[in-house]
Amino acid sequence: MKAMQLNAYGADSVFEAAEIETPALKAGHVLVKIAASSVNTVDTMIRNMGEELPLSPATPAILGMDFAGTVEAVGAGVTDYAVGDEVYGCAGGLADLPGTLAEYIVADSQLIAHKAKNLSMREAAALPLVGITAYEGLQRAQIAAGQKVLVHGGSGGVGHIAIQLANHWGAEVYSTGGGDAQTALIEQLGATAINYKTETVADYVAKHTDGAGFDLVFDSVGGANLLNSFEAAALNGQIATTVTLCELDLSAAHFKGLSLHVVFMLIPMLHNHKRDQHGAILRALTEIAEAGALKPVLDATKFTLEQAGEAHARLESGKAMGKVVIEN
């Protein structure tokens, strides 16, 4: 099969076209012909940092985690999928799991689900990593109907899904963005937009919560922005975040009695730990999408498999609006 490989890591690394053996089918797995895959920030981190990240695969490496495609063969013990099924998932591109920048992937059947009928292959490929992350974070933070929910970074990959899911579960959703295009997308997705460049945390907490704070804060920006989340949260509020590779003063969280939920969705893939939970979340996302409540936003720029390097550059440029997708 055709694949785009990395033979070395680093800022100057390049993807090179290669003809390699189609992966062998294994028990509990399915062979999927990939129609599309999406690029996530973690993919660019692996390409740039290589061995500095403990989750990077050995070179020559096939990166890419998200995909959508069609089942071509079913391994022993798999009962939920048949040849010809359209599926999607996040199942490779790290550690010892070959990725999606190729014609085929052998995916653990616990890490996939049937694709929503009303989503294209490109849209479905954009959903797994960010969808699982947003779903897990909101559920662990005990989202409930009627809550006031703040999403930091609502125009980003994870954030724009979190807005839609929070709306689906009946919350009153607000979201921060840093420009006209970002706030316009946030409003389009059904949240009240907050421009963090022109409004202070104290300003928008007073304006939207009468100073009480938000019941739940989903922080897809993380790092130092967590301090803004602590400030924005209500007493005994819930905070979910995807970025905590930092040192912070937790005093504000202490005095408010906040609960902090750290989401690292790669754990099931890395450690073969409760992988069936990812399949269950993906099935739920399919149902929500088919109900018309969830639709990934795609960047307007299109890329072929051979343009994997350009797709990475597009994401790293910060100019993409929506998920960057590669089509086979």
UniProtKB/TrEMBL annotation:
Could you list this entry's UniProt keywords, alphabetically sorted: NADP
Looking at the record's lineage, which domain of life comes first? Bacteria
Q: By its UniProt entry, which Pfam families does this protein fall under?
A: ADH_N (PF08240), ADH_zinc_N_2 (PF13602)
Which InterPro entries does UniProt cross-reference here?
ADH-like_N (IPR013154), ER (IPR020843), GroES-like_sf (IPR011032), NAD(P)-bd_dom_sf (IPR036291), Zinc-ADH_QOR/CCCR (IPR051603)
**Which segments constitute the Enoyl reductase (ER) domain?**
10-326
Protein name in UniProt: Zinc-dependent alcohol dehydrogenase family protein
Query: Which source organism does the UniProt entry give?
Result: Coraliomargarita algicola
